[in-house]
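Task: sequence design from structure.
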């Protein structure tokens, strides 16, 4: 984390799709409709500690296209299998004082170039704001 806290880059279009990587483990999602097979993320996919430390890790669709990356690159990253869930920048900005920034991950190879963060305006934002944002993203995120 740098000394100056950047929390939103207004040059990132509100309509841009963001991808959140979620480990394929039972506590990260739940079935909300057994008839249709629809799933939803759980609070475990957006932890308060991660948000307060640096922000929630995401990948920007625009940067992924720019670098020739696909969702399969996200799914195969890391030590464990992952799923990709999508929401838009506008879903983040709908919560006052929340935004998206680019934050390259040097350890992530080529995929790290498309990395960004969902952040609140203050590094140690109130839990109430984080929970509001988390609930919004849980409701908006769709599996890819």
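Answer:
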């Amino acid at each position: 984390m740098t000394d100056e806290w950047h929390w939103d880059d207004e040059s990132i279009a509100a309509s841009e799709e963001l991808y959140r990587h979620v480990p394929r483990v039972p506590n990260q999602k739940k079935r909300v409709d057994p008839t249709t097979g629809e799933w939803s993320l759980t609070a475990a996919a957006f932890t308060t500690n991660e948000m307060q430390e640096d922000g929630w890790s995401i990948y920007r669709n625009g940067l992924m296209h720019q670098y020739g990356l696909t969702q399969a690159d996200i799914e195969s990253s890391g030590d464990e299998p992952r799923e990709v869930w999508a929401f838009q920048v506008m879903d983040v900005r709908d919560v006052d004082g929340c935004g998206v920034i680019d934050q390259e991950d040097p350890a992530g190879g080529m995929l790290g170039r498309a990395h960004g963060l969902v952040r609140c305006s203050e590094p140690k934002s109130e839990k109430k704001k984080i929970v509001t944002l988390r609930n919004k993203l849980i409701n908006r995120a769709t599996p890819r």
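The CA atoms of residues 95 and 129 lie 8 Å apart.
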